[in-house]
Amino acid sequence: MTIGELLKEYRQSKGLTQKQFADGIVSTSYYSKVEKNEHRITAEDLIDLLEHNNISLWSFFKKLALNADFEHYQHLSIEEEAIDAYYHSDKKRLELLKQQVDGSKIPNKNELSLSISGWIECMKSDDEEPDLELREKLKEQIFDLPSIDLNKLNLFCNFMEFYTLDSNFFTAKQAINKYVDSKETDIQEALLSIITNLLYMSIKDDNYSYTDYLLQSARKIPLKPCLFLQKELISFYQNLIVYHFDKKQIYLENCKVITQSIKLAGMEEYGKALNGVIAKLVK
After folding, report:
1. d(Cα 217, Cα 211) in Å, to the nearest integer?
2. Treating both helix axes as pointing N-terminal to C-terminal, what angle do 211-219 and 228-246 enclose, rounded to 10 degrees?
3. Counting beta carbons within 10 angstroms of the beta carbon of residue 90, is it exposed (0 to 12), middle (13 to 18) or buried (19 or more)?
4. Pick from 197, 274, 188, 176: which is nearest to 227 by CA?
5. Sign of the CA dihedral running 154, 160, 162, 166
6. What is the pLDDT of residues 193-203, one digit of tens each?
7. 181 phi and psi, to 5 degrees?
8. Measured by CB atoms within 10 angstroms of the end CB, which terminus of the chain is less buried, N or C?
9. Cα 85 from Cα 235, distance rounded (Å)
10. H/E segment holding residue 216
11. pLDDT, tens digit, 9 for 90 and up, residues 226-241
12. pTM
């Protein structure tokens, strides 16, 4: 069974027209050709399509036979499922996914299993003992610099809390040097998120050795509407850093304006977290 055939099966089981099923994701004419296997849908559009219709990524790919379409998308589907489980604090779901991966014949399953273990490790509370061996394996195998790609950039961004500022900067600098001139939005977003995390860690550790380089690198990435949040966060941390050195109130006020705009946009908890960063700095 192909991707298109299985999408058609799900659509018909829900009693939806092609227009209803693909609404806002791809055009009806394009989607019609996907079902007929005349067009191949991108991974990004496929994931959006499944989410739009409340179809589990893992369930979808389990129904596919082990053919070329399956191998092309399966690895990505499990990663997305794991990330979704993490952000919903669903540890049991992550553990089940890991068991399924470990017992499967998925290409590169060891790397995928390792990354899921990393998500589980991220969910540990402060009083739980960290798995230092796992964290080192993540660093050695997933963040292998010569082959770092978008997937590894995203994993690195989410697992940075495991490592020191100096260690993270070394990895990030290699990634920035390789990709800072990339025109791909996904790459740009990942780099800005990594820079944002490093700026936060710099402020938290009271170590400003790397901030000039990080801010200069962020400025090389042009503003796009889809990068607006990352750019706002860069501006937030830039103002905090400048405040650290000259203590002018205007920089704190700039930070508060940014946090307020983020809260007004619907990210209330994120805005509160940023206000917490301000409070720690001005104690």
Report:
1. 10
2. 150
3. middle
4. 188
5. positive
6. 999 999 999 99
7. -95, 5
8. C
9. 30
10. helix 211-219
11. 999 999 999 999 999 9
12. 0.68
